[in-house]
Amino acid sequence: MAEGNPRTFWKTAGALGIVTAVITLTGTIVVALINKPSTPSAQSTSSSAEPPASVTSGSAAPPSSTAAAPLWSGHLNLESYVNFDVLPPVNGGGQLSQATDGSFRLSGNGAIWESPNPPTKQECIDRIAGYSVTKFQADIGKQLCYKARSGRIVHIKFTELVQPGNVLDTPLWGTEITIWSS
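The line above is the sequence of Serine/threonine protein kinase; the predicted structure tokens follow.
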């Protein structure tokens, strides 16, 4: 093999380019898989520099004689396919699906809440009945009334963007949630 042979140079450069592309693609896929829990109950074990996949805090509301008392109220890092039929709510296994652009498909089961004050259960029911939408674009400060598959009424306030979405994953939103019985 002669030194300075242009064919050898181009073969080597082409091979290195292919190897670099494969390593980059593999790394991107591995990072996406590590950052996305495989089951709804999976807990993140990453360092504190990365946000957890889902953090739920809050508690079931104390028993009350009024039908409008919440079943649960608290914080959830909301991602996609949220299940409000379990308490506390969890990401995965539910019906509130989110696209990678941060929009939620509501199928007419949700309505935007525009008042700065949180709604009551009845206000959410009335809002959904009169102003339901099929799609909701999440953003900090926006609020949503939603009717879960079980009939439970849910109020969601989007408080922070914990982790932006990308082409492989949906955004992770910090939310304050209240859930009422059906």
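Note on the example: Residues 30-55, 61-65 have pLDDT under 50 and may be disordered. Residues 56-180 form one domain.
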